[in-house]
Amino acid sequence: MAMKPLRERNPIIVAIVGLVILAALALITFDSANLPIIGGGTGYTAYFAEDAGLQAGNEVRVAGVIVGQVTGISLAGNKVAVSFKVKNAWVGNQTTAAIEIKTLLGDKFLSLDPQGTQPQNPGTPIPLSRTTSPYDVTQAFQGFGQEVSQIDTIKLAKSLETLSAAFSTTPPYVRSALRGLASVSHAVASRDAQVTRLLGSAKNVTGTLAAESATFAKLLGDGNLFLAELQQAQLTPTLQALDQVTSLLLQNQANLTKALALAGPYYRLLGNALGNGRWFDVYLCGVLPKSYLPPGTGPATGCEPPKP
Questions:
Q1: Rg of the chain taking only CA atoms, in angstroms
Q2: pLDDT tens, 225-273?
Q3: pLDDT tens track for 118-133
Q4: E strand or H helix that includes residue 100
Q5: How far is the C-alpha of 163 from the C-alpha of 178, rounded, in Å?
Q6: 73 strand-pairing partners
Q7: pTM, whole model, 2 decimals?
Q8: CA-CA distance, 70 to 109, in Å (whole number)?
């Protein structure tokens, strides 16, 4: 049975079918990462005690090699559930996961250590017993700043003064120590606002550096590429030319030695000829016979210069 030509079909039905096909193609295109065959890999979940600054989109690595990325972070009771995808890497049923520090500016990545004899079930999360989180220095400074800001330094100084008075009958070294402690507390109390501002500024600086870590990494990478290009494009031909020059000098070492030996007397005579002014000193000997010279003039024997 021959198929009916497209122009003879109902145009409304053709338009609806075309729109459905276009919508399906768009859905496949935008959600290709989640497809089982051409997608971004197998999805897993791991429980952590804290997220430690890990974010969706961070890298997943095995032995330093990028094998996937973090897809999501959510709260699961008193734990943090980290979802990630892995492609072209084996994940065993005893695999451990750790949040590692990628750069000093605070970037993180998820590190996997594949272990076990059977594959990890994607539907079973990696438990807390097989995950670890790093110690975040930036968060520690922020917490320290908040704690310091809540301390009543004036009351602390008065307490230390009272303690010093109570120990006034103790040996001198105890009283000196307490007086010094009271002085320190007074100094801290007088600088309370400055310390708080300092910690706040440190928080802003670390936050800014962490936010611009990608820029710093790209800058360092561009610097490495520039040095590599400079080495290949400039230094290599220069060193080759220098090698040719040194080889030529070695081949003509005897001629150079002879030229330098002859250059000394030549420049000495040239200096004598030009040493009396802006002219040449010239002495001609033996041009005229002695019979043509006045008596008593000229050298007695041979041809000698008038000045020794």
A1: 45
A2: 777 776 666 677 787 888 888 888 888 888 888 888 888 887 777 777 7
A3: 888 888 899 988 988 8
A4: strand 96-101
A5: 8
A6: 82
A7: 0.38
A8: 8
